[in-house]
Amino acid sequence: MNIYTQVCGMIIVAMLLFFYHRQPTMGLSSEKRFCITLYIILACVVLDIVSCYFIAKSNRYGVTLVSAVCKLYLISLQAVAFSALHYAISDIFENFGSKQEKFLYLCFKGICIVGIALTIYLPIYYYYDGHSLYSFGPAAFCTYIFAGLYIVATMASSLIFKRYLKPAKTNAILFWMTLWAMAAIIQLLHPRLLIVSFASAIGALIMYFEMENPQSSISRRTGHFSSAVIREYFEHMYQNNKKFSVLMISFRTVTDSSSDNKLLRKTIEMLSEFLFTIDTAKVFDTAEGYFLLVFNNNDFVESTKFKITTYIQSVESNPDIANAITLMRPYYTIIPDCSICDNADELMLLLTSFIPNDHNTAVGNEVVVNLDIIAEVRRRKQVEKMVIEAMEQDRIEVHYQPIYNIATQTFTSAEALVRIRLNNDKLVLPTEFIPIVEQTGRIVPLSNTIYKKTLSFMKSYHIERLGVENIELNLSVRQGESPAFTSKILEQLEEFQISPEMINLEITETSSLHSKEVLYQNMKRLEEYGLTFSLDDFGSGSSNLNYIIDMPVNIVKLDNHLSEEYLENPKAKAIVNAVIEMAHSMGIKIIAEGIETKDAFEAMKALGVDYIQGFYFSKPLPEHEFLKFMQSHNL
Q1: Nearest by Cα to 196 from 254, 148, 267
Q2: What's the pLDDT at 383?
Q3: Amino acid 318: pLDDT
C-alpha cells in the first residue's frame, strides 16, 4: 500500500498535539478552534490510512464496510476543509460581521451538512491492483466540490476581511489553502498519489509555527505570558462577555530605571518565580517591571494580593536583597470588574497610560479603579483626540502676551502661548490640554507645530522692527530630553532664517526629569548658538535652587502665586525679596508674572524686577492684535 505520506502526516499531527498540550495556553477561542482542527486533521489522516487498509483487504471485509470506511474518510476531508474555514473567519463573522455576513456563515454550516449528507447518499467505488489504490465515483467527486468550495471561501474571506486578521495569519492561511488546493488537483489528476491528507498535515504545521505556537506567547525573561498577547486576551474576554478582574503590581524606585538597578531586577525575578504559585489567575509580564494578573473570579483578588504582600514582607530578612527592598515599594492597581471599561482598548489605555503614572491617587499602596477614574481616562482620551485633530486640521493658534521692560519702558519681548480653536470658534486654553499631552507624549509634535507657527510669524512680519528683542517659547521637559532636540530646533531656525538670539526657551520646574544630563547638554549647546533660557514658575512645584545653578538660565520668572501673595503675605514678601537679590547677584534678570493691577505693578517695579508680564498691560493676543499693540506702544 502507498501510505507512506499518510503515516508521515499522522506523525506530524500527533507531535503537534503532543507539544501543544504540554505548553500553557491563554484559552482563546482561536486556540480552541486550532486544537479542534488538529484533531480533525489527525482523524482524517488516520481514516485515510484505515481506508487504504480496507480497500487492500476488500475481499475480506466486503463492499459495504469498505465503502462506509471510504465515505468516512471523505467526510473527514470535508470536515477538515470546513474547520479550516471556521478557524480562519469565525471570530470575524461572530464579533465584527454584519447581519448579512453572519447569515452567510450560517449558510456555510448548512452547506457542510448538505455536503456530508450527499457524500453518505452517493455511491463510491475503489480500485486496487496490488500496488496502487484509491477511491473514486460520485461521492468522491462531491467531496472535491464541497472541499474546494470551503478552500475558496477561506481564501476569499481571508482577503476580504484581512483588516480584522493579523497579516501573519492571513499569509499562513493563504499558503495552507493554496498548498492543499494544489495537492487536491494533483490527486484528482493522478489518483494513485494520495497526498491530500498529508497536505492538510503540512498546513497544520505551518499554522502552528506561524500563529498557534503557545511558546510565542511566553516571555523568555520570566516564563509568564508576554506583553504582546495582553490586548488579544482582553479582546477575547470582552468579545465573549466574560467577567474578569485585574490586579497590576508596579514599583516605584529611587533610580531612573528599574532595569538599570541589579538589586531591583533580582527582586522582580524573585517575585516572578513566586507568581508561578498563583493558580487562580493568568500572569502577564509587561516587560516594563509590572506584572498583570487576570482573574476570572473577583473572589481571588484580595487573597492573591495578601499572598503577594506576605511574600514581599518575608524576603525583607533575606540579606541578599535587603537593599533592594529599600528601593522598591509595590503598588497594587485593582480593577474589580473590568466591565467598567467599554472594550479592550480602553482597558489597555487605563493600564498603560493612566495608572502607572499616577500613584498619587493611591490610598496607601493601592488604588481601586472606580467610575471617576474611568471618566478621567475617557476625558484625557477625548482631549488627546482634540489635540490630534487640531494639528491635522490646522486649528492650532499662537497668541502673544507682551512683556514690559522696566528699564526701557517699552515692550521688548513676548511669550508665545498656544490655543486650540474648536469648530464652533471657541478657544481652548493650554491648561486644559498641555498636562495631558505631556503625559501621552503628544507634546513633542504639538511643540513642533507651535515653533513653526511662531517662527513663520516672526519671519513674515519682521517683529524686530517693532522693538521685539526676543520671543519666549515654552520648552517641554520631554522635548528637551530628546537627543535630537538641538538639531531639530536649529534646523527650524535655519529654515525660517531667524537669529538664535531672537529665541528664549522657557522651561518649567518639574520633578519628572528622567534624562537630566541630556537636557542640560542640549541647553548648553543651544546657548553656544545664541539662544537664551528662562526658568518659569520659580517657587512652585518641585522648587530647587539647583535649577538655577545647573541650568544656563538668564531669566527667572516668579510664580504667579508668589506675585499675588507678595502684597498680603509677609512670608511671600520675604521670599520674593530673597529671590530677586539672589538672582541679581548672579546676573539673572527677573520677570514678575500675573501682574493685573497698578498696585502690583508699582510694588514689583519698586522691588527691582526687570520685566512685567500680566493682564495689567495685556492678555495674550492673536497675531494681528499683537502687531497693533506693539505698533501703538513701541513706535
Answers
A1: 148
A2: 93
A3: 58
pLDDT at 193 over 70: yes
Q: What are the beta bridge partners of residue 135? A: 126
Find the helix or strand (DSSP H, E) in which 586 lies.
none
User: How far is it, in rounded angstroms, from Cα 238 to Cα 244?
Assistant: 9
Q: Region 101-126: what's the mean pLDDT?
A: 84
Q: Are 293 and 304 spatial neighbours (Cβ–Cβ below 8 Å)?
A: yes
Averaged over 338-358, what is the pLDDT?
77
Q: How confident is the model at residue 258 (pLDDT cuts 50, 70, 90)?
A: very low
Distance CA 69, CA 63 (A): 10
Q: How far is CA 395 from the centre of its chain?
A: 27
Residue 617 scores a pLDDT above 70: yes
The pairing of beta strand 225-226 with beta strand 133-136: unpaired
Q: Is 465 exposed, middle or buried (0-12, 13-18, 19+ CB in 10 A)?
A: exposed
Nearest to 297 by CA among 333, 247, 250: 247
pLDDT of residue 100: 61
Query: Judging by beta carbons within 10 Å of its beta carbon (0-12, 13-18, 19+), is residue 31 exposed, middle or buried?
Result: middle
Q: Within 13 Å and on the Cβ side, how many CA atoms surround 93?
A: 19
CA–CA dist 609, 599 (Å, integer): 14
> Is the separation of the CB atoms in 262 and 324 below 8 Å?
no
- Can you give the pLDDT at residue 528? 92
What cell was used for 67? 465503502
CA distance to 25, 471, 617, per residue, from 596 (Å): 65, 21, 8
Q: How far apart are CA 500 and CA 489, in angstroms?
A: 10
- Can you give the length of the chain in residues? 635
Output the pLDDT for position 257. 46
SS3 content of the chain, % helix, strand, coil (to 5): 60, 15, 25
Distance, in Å, from the CA atom of 224 to the CA atom of 281, rounded to the nearest integer, reads: 11
The grid cell for 482 is: 530628546
Instruction: Give the global pTM.
Output: 0.69
Signed CA dihedral, 620, 621, 627, 631: sign only:
negative
- Comparing 543 with 400, the larger pLDDT belongs to 400
**Which three cell numbers mark 12?**
506530524
Give 167 or 80, the one with higher predicted confidence.
Answer: 80
Give dist(CA 13, CA 44) in Å, integer. Answer: 11
Q: Dihedral (C-alpha) 334, 340, 342, 345: value to the nearest 10 degrees? A: -10
For helices 443-461 and 371-392, give the axis angle rounded to 10 degrees. Answer: 30
pLDDT of residue 542: 45
b/e 410-448 (16+ beta carbons within 10 angstroms → b): bbbbbbbbbbbeeeeeeebebeebbebbbbbebbbebbe
CA dihedral 603, 606, 608, 614 (to 10 degrees): 40
CA distances to 468, 568, 587, 603 from 573, rounded to whole Å, are: 31, 8, 21, 11
Q: What is the pLDDT of residue 320?
A: 57
How many CB atoms within 10 Å of residue 382?
11
Angle subtended by helix axes 167-189 and 138-160, to nearest 10:
160
